[in-house]
Design a protein that fits this description.
Elements lengths: L3 H16 L7 H22 L8 E9 L4 E7 L1 H19 L7 H20 L3 H10 L1 H11 L4 H34 L6 H6 L4 H18 L8 H8 L2 H26 L1 H6 L1 H21 L3 H20 L4 H32 L10 H4 L1 H14 L6 H14 L3 H26 L16 H19 L2 H21 L3 H8 L2 H6 L1
Antiparallel strand pairs: 1-2
Helix pairs in contact: 1-2, 1-4, 2-3, 2-4, 3-4, 3-11, 3-15, 3-21, 4-5, 4-6, 5-7, 6-7, 7-9, 7-10, 9-11, 10-14, 11-14, 11-15, 13-14, 13-19, 14-15, 14-18, 14-19, 15-17, 15-18, 15-20, 15-21, 17-19, 18-19, 18-20, 21-22
Length: 508
């Protein structure tokens, strides 16, 4: 129990090293075994988590460089807990659904190393440790896209790396200056996230530091106008790369906003609400329109991801419990639904080696099970009530309604536009007569694929009907964070906005 988080972080990496010794014929079974064990470790973490405790739990703190306050510092709260579970769950589903690939052993090993970095990001409470895992996550994903992607995979991989690495370097400058400010205020060096949360930063410095962290996180999300790397990465990546990228890696950016930007720079966060909301609305509407004109199924889902991430940003900067809780829940629902949609596109690509909608039509006749699963995930993607997609979108928009009803209405048009382009995709690909004889005898979902999709479908329905087990722990930690933001805010606008949050009133 004392080293549960260490086990959770490094178990996949150790297993990846031993994976080099495993025979190529057995590597798939070995990979599935490792990711299943990792998922059950994360479930044990969830079951052992105290949902009534708003602070960090399962803390491990070992000094590394004491003179500079750099420690091996791990812990989870309600905000990070389910992102850890999402990481292990979607990695497990992606590996189970993985079809044949060249150099299969190297692919499995790369996925296991990538899982280590993703979990490490969400449980790190030392900023240097967080940054190490953040940067390390680029390497296996670069390799996955560049080695197993499509024709333009090298271009897509390099563009992905350069965009995200450039943003990370700017964030590193902000990290180092934040450490300097803490040293100036206290006389000691510390890279502890809880210590930084307690530091009151002057407003003018908050604006600059917010900008440095914002660029690192915004490129990762990706926010408009930094979004252009994502469609290339998704379009060229293998299915497993797209699943992990959409389900987990994009959430590292939105998690950064919640963990760093809001609690460390509450006044700057309030100051920049309007411009960030405008950029988010552009993300929602502009990318939805681009998704509508795409003929490639995978590009539709890719641009859809950017549109949904805009709603997450809107909820995050609502600066109240409803919005932030909704944004975090939407991170989870988007991870599950977008991951499933990319897997579904991968299924049809494996059979026909094309993703163009013009090549299909009438698929519901030849692949009814596939069409059913696709339809359920499509409905969840557009936020149909009683599916997982509705809960997060409703709460995120409800939270921002308190800030600006007009901007909320504009952001809400993304739901309508999402229904338009998703239903267009479904109509062209699944309904009507079979337009291509190559599709008439396509095999439906096999046992391996059904095993991967059934848990996703059950989660989409169950958490859409009863999200309370997930919402309660998140809500407890978010309300505690808002109270801390209120107590350290130094501008009148921030105090008034945070004072008006329901969570503050309920707490008092």
């Amino acid at each position: 129990m004392d080293s549960l988080l260490t086990l959770l972080v490094f178990f996949p990496a150790v297993a990846a090293v031993f994976g080099f010794l495993v025979d190529s014929k057995s590597i798939k079974a070995y990979g599935i075994t490792i990711v299943v064990i990792e998922f059950f470790i994360s479930l044990f973490l969830w079951m052992s988590f105290d949902a009534t405790n708003p602070g960090f739990q399962f803390i491990e703190n070992v000094p590394i460089i004491q003179d500079f306050g750099i420690n091996y510092f791990l812990g989870v709260d309600g905000i990070a807990l389910f992102l850890v579970v999402l990481s292990t769950f979607m990695t497990m589903i992606a590996v189970i659904g993985l079809g044949p690939h060249k150099n299969f052993k190297n692919l499995i090993i790369s996925i296991l190393f990538l899982e280590m970095t993703m979990v490490g990001v969400f449980v790190s409470l030392d900023v240097i440790l967080f940054y190490i895992f953040w940067e390390l996550s680029l390497i296996p994903m670069l390799y996955i896209v560049g080695a197993w992607g499509a024709e333009r995979r090298i271009y897509a991989a390099i563009k992905f790396f350069l965009y995200t690495f450039a943003g990370s370097l700017i964030m590193l400058v902000g990290i180092l200056y934040m450490a300097f400010l803490y040293h100036e205020a206290t006389g000691v060096w510390s890279f502890s996230i809880p210590d930084w949360h307690s530091l009151v930063v002057p407003f003018d410095l908050q604006l600059w530091l917010f900008g440095a962290f914002f660029l690192g996180f915004a490129i990762k999300v990706p926010m408009f106008p930094f979004h252009t790397w994502l469609p290339y990465a998704h379009g060229q990546a293998p299915t497993v790369g797209s699943v992990i990228l959409a389900a987990i890696l994009l959430k590292m950016g939105t998690y950064g906003f919640v963990r760093f930007s809001l609690p460390m720079f509450p006044d700057a966060s309030v100051y920049f609400i309007t411009p960030i909301a405008i950029l988010s609305i552009i993300m929602v509407i502009y990318t939805a329109m681009i998704a509508y004109v795409q003929e490639d199924m995978k590009q539709v889902v890719a641009y859809s991801s950017i549109s949904h991430m805009g709603i997450i940003i809107i909820g995050t900067f609502a600066m109240n419990a409803e919005g932030i809780v909704g944004a975090i829940f939407l991170m989870l629902s988007h991870g599950i639904v977008s991951g499933a949609l990319f897997m579904l596109v991968g299924v049809i690509y494996d059979r026909r080696h094309t993703k163009m909608m013009s090549e299909f039509g009438g698929l519901a006749s030849s692949m009814p099970r596939f069409a059913t699963v696709y339809g359920i995930m499509l409905m969840a993607s557009v936020g149909l009530p009683l599916t997982i997609g509705f809960v997060g979108e409703f709460l995120a928009l409800l939270g921002f309604y308190a800030i600006s009803p007009i901007m909320t209405a504009l952001a809400g048009t993304g739901i309508i536009l999402g229904a338009v382009y998703m239903l267009r995709l479904y109509k062209k690909s699944f309904f009507g007569e079979i337009t291509n004889e190559k599709n008439r005898n396509l095999p439906d979902l096999n046992a391996r694929e059904i095993t991967a999709f059934v848990p996703l479908v059950l989660l989409v329905v169950y958490l859409g009907v009863y999200p309370k087990p997930v919402l309660d722990p998140i809500d407890t930690s978010v309300k505690n964070m808002i109270i801390q933001m209120h107590d350290k805010s130094i501008t009148k606008d921030a105090k008034n906005l945070l004072e008006s949050a329901n969570s503050i009133k309920e707490h008092k």
